[in-house]
Amino acid sequence: MNHQFVVYAGCMFSSKTTKLLMNIEKYKYQNKKIVAFKPKIDIRYSDDEISSHIGLKYKAVCVENGGAMLEYLQKLDSFDVVAVDEQFMIKDSSDVLIWLFKNTINVLVSTLDLSYAGKPFHETMKIMPYATHVEKCTSVCTVCGKDAFYTHRKNIDENDEIVVGGFDKYEPRCYQHFPYIQG
Predict the structure, then answer these.
(1) CA 141 to chain centre
(2) How far apart (Å, rounded) are the C-alpha atoms in residues 38 and 40?
(3) Which residue in the list 25, 64, 86, 171 is annotated as catalytic?
(4) Is 86 a catalytic residue?
(5) Which of 4, 33, 88, 103 could form a disulfide with 121 if both were Cys (CB 3.0 to 4.6 A apart)?
(6) Do 90 and 66 touch, CB atoms closer than 8 A?
(7) pTM (two decimals)
(8) Tens digits of per-residue pLDDT, 36-94?
(9) Helix H or strand E segment including 109
C-alpha cells in the first residue's frame, strides 16, 4: 500500500477527530507504529490524549509547534504513522508533516479549515496540496438543521483567532446562517 496523507477538515462538531481516531485504529490492527500529537493548549477533554466528543481516545504527545514534534520523533527508533489532532493550532506543523510524508511516513490530520471569521488557517492551507485524501466533514446547523460547514463563535468579543472551547463557545452553521459568508 502506498503511504497516505489524510486530512479530515471542517467545522467544529463534524466528527473530524472521531474519523482520525478510527483511522488510527485501522493502523493499530495492521501493527503499525503510531505517534500521535495534539496542541498543548487544547486540554478540553484530556491533557495527554486525543479525545473525541463521543469518548474515543488515543494517547498523544502535547506540543506547541512543529519543532517540538520533530524533536520528539527524532528520539524514536522508528514509526510508520504520525497522527495530529487540531493541526491548525500547532504552529509550523505543516512543514514537519509535509517532510514526513515526503519521507514515506503515513500522515493523518484532523483540523479546522476556516476560522470563526471565515479565514483559512495558514497551517491547514499549507498541507492541503500534499494530501492524498481530503474529507470535508460537516455537522448540523444549530439554527436550521441543514448541513453545517462553518464554525460560528458565540462571543465575538474574544478577538484571538484561536480560542479553545466547545459548545460553550462555538456552534456549527450552514452557509445561510454563517455571518462571515454573507457579503
Answers:
(1) 20
(2) 6
(3) 86
(4) yes
(5) 88
(6) yes
(7) 0.91
(8) 999 997 666 677 888 887 778 999 999 999 999 999 999 999 999 999 999 999 999 99
(9) strand 106-112
